Amino acid sequence: MTIPTRFAALMLGAAFCLSLTLNARAQPAEFPVIQTQTLEIASGQTLDLLLAQAGIGAAERQEIAFAFGAEYDLRKLRPGHELRIDMTPGGTVQQAELRVSEGVRIEISFGVDTATRVIAPEPEVLQRAASLQINTSVFVALEEAGVPSRFAVKLAEVLGGTVDFRRDLSGGETLQMMWRETRIDGESIGHFELTFAALKIDDTLFEVTWPDAASGSATLYRNGEVMRVVAQPVEGARVSSVYGRRRHPVYGDIRMHSGVDFAAARGTPVYATAPGRIRFIGRRGGYGRTVEISHGSSTMTRYAHLNAIPEGVREGQQVAAGDRIGSVGSSGTATGPNLHYEVRVNGRPTDPLSEDQNIAISRTTQSGEIAQERLVRARADLQQLMTDQSPTQRTPSES
Ligand SMILES: [Zn+2]
């Protein structure tokens, strides 16, 4: 637009200077000068308010909102999103554009026909790695290195029953991590996926590989050998009640709690923790809507208080660790949405979070060969990334 702008400036003289202060985008002289306004959505503001602020009448505001609404859920508008309006001096809107999260733009052109289009930039996925020293805690070490600190939770999910982060870490341990980061237009959108971690404590090297898909199971290695495969029934959920004797939240008396409760929002996916065959789907008294999976002849896992079972999940079906078998709900006797997860061996409930149990139900999860290949590849990728990254990149600053 540089040449037409200069041209217009010469032709329009003083009039152009005035429109320039209004943030005008000049057109060649034979076209009317288009005024562009860029407005940012403030807290508590609606699109309608913003359009009114731009000086647009009620009928046209409605038309614009309708066109945007066809392409974008306007309830998702947040402070910081922007509205750009191109208007003729006569006050006719020629083009309107919403700039929402993750670089997405929704553009409407008003003419003989109204045309709407959504422009979404292609996300770019980067492999990243960091090597850091643990001095106070894993969480602090990650935070100081600019690595997403939520990775501490992912690590604890896998190493929890094996490493006591308070007792076993004496300071000075090295933690290496590799993850994927999604960027749009060169900017991180806050989407990080941990793929590999290596933690050396004294002479023991613990390594964890996470699968490509979000739902698969993580594998824990000890000194290069598969130690166990860990699939969580609910990703990243908080354990709201552990196994053992407790005061019953509904009945108030002391009862044995035969499983572990994971508090999560209704509808959160529930995954099979180990491969097996679905032996029961249906209602079971206080358990509510329940799925049960047999893992060999002696071990069974039970998933209770479910909200719904995905279509296609049936009794008799074989499932893999990490397969989706339901969603969190509060059916049966439950104070709120949570997953009651139970592991029974020969009919007797056992503590699902105990290490023996993890080993028992995951023994057959994965052929050792695939797991070994995955470890070799992860180590090589990490090595490569650490070599490629210059020292300034080694501690990422913008994530
Ligand atoms: Zn429970």
From TrEMBL:
Residues 255-352 form the M23ase beta-sheet core domain. The keyword Protease applies. Residues 1-26 form the signal peptide. One of its GO terms (molecular function) is metal ion binding. Its cofactor is Zn(2+). Gene3D superfamilies: 3.10.450.350, Glucose Permease (Domain IIA). InterPro entries: Cell_wall_metabolism_enzyme, Dup_hybrid_motif, M23ase_b-sheet_dom. Keywords: Hydrolase, Metal-binding, Metalloprotease, Protease, Signal, Zinc. GO terms for biological process: proteolysis. Pfam families: Peptidase_M23. PANTHER family: CELL DIVISION PROTEIN YTFB, PEPTIDASE-RELATED. This is M23 family metallopeptidase. It comes from Halocynthiibacter styelae. The lineage of its organism: Bacteria, Pseudomonadati, Pseudomonadota, Alphaproteobacteria, Rhodobacterales.
